[in-house]
Each structure stands twice: as structure tokens, then as C-alpha cells.
Design brief:
This protein has 358 residues and is α+β, with helices and mostly antiparallel strands. It has one domain: L-amino peptidase D-ALA esterase/amidase (4-Layer Sandwich), CATH 3.60.70.12. The chain has 10 helices and 15 strands.
């Protein structure tokens, strides 16, 4: 596919990006999409697979940070208690959560037929954002087949923007969607990669800040009417962070919390109606389901985590920009439309160069 993610977006921070600039720079991680684009149906499914094996049998350490809990996710309670992933991570619209959880359970049972009998039940993990402005969410268009299609499409080479779960999403009153980024750091004298994948569906136009420049204020000042931009924030963002550093669930929760720093730099204030959730996981080791003892690799000391914190914040900010830069304009339900940032601001490069102050 050779996708050029976020072409033209400013590079956030001083840390170098990975080879592709995506979350797939963290070894083993793959992402897949299934996109529904049919008139009033503008939605889809995206999945992230931390490794190619059976996640129920070989679990991955993980933790989440709920920055603002206006959301309808499935699986967070057990994730918080046990600190592991045991299914792929699924993203979709709010009304598709239950269907995808069922699909994840079916897939896990197909691979492990005694789940729920001789084996414990499986913990599905589904995150959502409300795409109801562009998508007829009441059509209940998402099916289990869409989850399977997204899993089958999973690859290290994947698209961002108006694809998969991001098809109907809006950000800053513009077209949002899927975004991704990566950074390479040194911690405890060793190189590590941090990657992020976001489902961006948040923000009002005047808030939009790009690499410190208040671009949104300029764009809002140009608009014939700022009424829409004055409405309360009703969106959400899901931020997934992958690291190849050996961390436990407690440390991963600390990494996940730093996603809020990157989110805030883009102008978000985590509004009342915004569900802002971050999840971090490590690919450095797995935890066998039936092992009586887990032999963990040496973990990084907490005092060595600062480079990972910086990378997590920078990756999330960069991934949000990737979603905005990569998105294409979409028209959906009842003629509602969201313009891509590049279409709404054809002089964006000049605005950024000039600091974008109205």
C-alpha cells in the first residue's frame, strides 16, 4: 500500500520517528480496517493486533487511563484488574460496541473451544466514538463480518484518515479519523520504539492548535458563522500506545496517562461530552494463560521512563495531526459534511509559518 501518513504535517518534538512513522514500527503490531461508505452509512471497524499469535493464550501486558469517562467501551474493568490484553483491540462507532464484543468472543472460542467451560471466559476489548453526525448510527450497520474483515486486513502497511472506524469521525469541526505516529528513544542505554494509533473525534474549531500555532482561531474567524464552533464538545478520542520496552501494567498505566499531554497540546480541554481514553501495552514479552509462574524479563526502572513519557505525548499529538492531514472530506447522513483540513485551509502551510494568529 505504501501509505504516506500525514504528508506535510509538522514533526512534533525533537525525537526521531521510526522507519514508517506508524505504530507498526513497534515490532509485531498490525492494524486493519473495514470501511463502510454508502450514502448515509459512513462508519467502519479498525482493529489493532499486538502480535500474530493467540492473544488468549499469550496475553500482552497493558493498562488504560480514563482521562474523561464519557464513553461506552467494553472490557476496561477486567483490563484494569488483571493488566493484560487477551483479544485484539477493536474500534468502531458507539452503537457497534456490542456486536464487535460478540465477534471477539466468537473468534476466541473458535481458537479455544473450551473457553467458558473448562477455560475461563474471554475479555473482549472494544472502544468507541460517536460518528452520528456523518453516519446514520441508528442503522446499526456494523456486523461481526466487518470485524472479521478488519482482522483479515491487518498489516504493518495500513491507511489513516477517513478509513475504518475513522470513516465518520469529526475533529475540530473538520474531518477526523484514524491517525498514527512513532518515535525512537534511548532509555537505560538501549533503543526503544513507541507508537500511537488514535481514533480522533473531538474538539471545536477555535481550539485547534498545530505545533503550538492557534490555527483554529484563524479558521474560525474566517467562517461566516461561528455558531457550530460555540456548541459544547460532544466528541471523543481513543489513544492506543505501543512500546517495545519491558514494562509491567503499573508502568504502562503511567505511560498511558501521558497521552493526555499530547492531546492537550492540540487544544483539547477534555470537554464534558468527550470520552478521552488512553491504553498502553508492551510487546516486549507475553504472559502465558496457563503458566503457574510468569518469568518476566528485567523491567525498566521507573527512573528510566521519562524518554517513554515524552515519546508517548509526542506520538499522540503527531497521530492527531496525522488523522487531520490524512483525512478526506466526507458527506453523509442528511447531507452533513466535514471538510478535510487541507481543503478547509488551502493556505495551511502559510498559516503555520506565520504562527496563525488572527
Amino acid at each position: 500500500m505504501n501509505v504516506n501518513h500525514g504528508h506535510g504535517a509538522p514533526h512534533i518534538g525533537t525525537l526521531p520517528r521510526g522507519a514508517t512513522g506508524t505504530i507498526a514500527d513497534v515490532g509485531g503490531v498490525r492494524v486493519g480496517h473495514c470501511t463502510l461508505d454508502a450514502g448515509s452509512v459512513q462508519t467502519g471497524v479498525s482493529v489493532l493486533l499486538p502480535h500474530a499469535g493467540d492473544l488468549f493464550r499469550e496475553k500482552v501486558p497493558a493498562a488504560a487511563a480514563v482521562i474523561n469517562g464519557f464513553g461506552k467501551s467494553i472490557g476496561l474493568m477486567q483490563l484494569e484488574e488483571l493488566g493484560v490484553l487477551e483479544t485484539p483491540i477493536a474500534l468502531t462507532n458507539t452503537f457497534g460496541v456490542g456486536v464487535l464484543a460478540q465477534a471477539q468472543i466468537r473468534a476466541a472460542v473458535a481458537a479455544n473451544p473450551t473457553i467458558g467451560r473448562a477455560l475461563p471466559t474471554v475479555n473482549p476489548l472494544v472502544f468507541e466514538c460517536n460518528d452520528g453526525y456523518l453516519n446514520d448510527i441508528q442503522a446499526f450497520s456494523i456486523t461481526e463480518a466487518h470485524y472479521r474483515a478488519a482482522c483479515e486486513a491487518a498489516s504493518v502497511d495500513f491507511a489513516s484518515g477517513s478509513v475504518g472506524a475513522g470513516r465518520g469521525m469529526s475533529s475540530f469541526d473538520l474531518k477526523g479519523g484514524i491517525g498514527t505516529a512513532s518515535r525512537v528513544v534511548q532509555a537505560a542505554l538501549a533503543p526503544y520504539t513507541v507508537g500511537a494509533l488514535v481514533l480522533a473525534n473531538f474538539g471545536r474549531l477555535p481550539m485547534l492548535t498545530i505545533d503550538g500555532a492557534p490555527v483554529g482561531r484563524t479558521l474560525a474567524a474566517r467562517a461566516a458563522s461561528s455558531r457550530a464552533a460555540q456548541e459544547p464538545e460532544k466528541g471523543s478520542i481513543i489513544m492506543l500506545i505501543a512500546v517495545d520496552a519491558p514494562l509491567d501494567a503499573r508502568q504502562l498505566r503511567r505511560v498511558a496517562t501521558r497521552a493526555a499531554a499530547g492531546l492537550a497540546r492540540t487544544g483539547s480541554v477534555y470537554g464534558h461530552g468527550s470520552g478521552d481514553i488512553a491504553l498502553a501495552f508492551s510487546t516486549a514479552y507475553t504472559l502465558a494463560h496457563d503458566a503457574p509462574v510468569h518469568a518476566l524479563p528485567p523491567l525498566l526502572a521507573d527512573s528510566q521512563l521519562d524518554p517513554l513519557f515524552q515519546a508517548a505525548a509526542d506520538c499522540v499529538e503527531q497521530a492527531i495531526l496525522d488523522a487531520l492531514w490524512s483525512a478526506s472530506s466526507v458527506t453523509g447522513r442528511d447531507g452533513h459534511a466535514r471538510l478535510a483540513l487541507r481543503e478547509a485551509a488551502p493556505d495551511l502551510a502559510d498559516l503555520l509559518a506565520g504562527g496563525a494568529r488572527p
